Amino acid sequence: MSTHAQRERLFLADLLESAGPNAPTLCDGWRARDLAAHVVVRERRADAAAGIVLKPLAARLERVQAEFAAKPYEELIQLIRTGPPRLSPYALKQIDEAANTVEFYVHAEDVRRAQPDWAPRDVDPVFADALWTRLERVARMLGRRSPVGLVLRRPDGRTAVARRGAPVVTVTGEPGELTLFAFGRQAAARVELDGEKDAVAEVEGAKLGI
Question: What does the angle CA 21 – CA 25 – CA 30 come to, to the nearest 5 degrees?
Fold first, then answer.
């Protein structure tokens, strides 16, 4: 049975392939080739991928990622499609689903929404709930750098507190849009922000996410 992560993996690979290696993305300074290299390194080079969260290892990550970005683009796409090697933790279905569902969703939107003709994507209710469940778990980590209180709210009223404090800005949107907002894609997320004008501006410009 296909999982959310597997479906998003194949969708991301298809998007990267159709966009081409030089297509823009929402990731600052990254073209599609750079994003593809990031995905491959994260799954296949744990020694370098640690630099994503550990600053002392960031230089190593950058070097290894550049090496992968220099590979043929078609090879990178195929590595994404086929997934991690058998001995990788990501090869385990449970870990893949937990770690990659949101990762691949966000990066797929990084490719889609950087194109001038992008349109909203229909997200089925089951997948929307899966995104929301994951967002609830990490909301405070993603919102830790918000300069004001930050609440994420679904249209049905369910909320997740991303940061406590005052004044408070409430961000309302579907789970996929809230996920993009919380991962630092504020400008691309289709959401509504409620709060004091200055507080809203601060949240819009904050460095949210990992």
Answer: 70
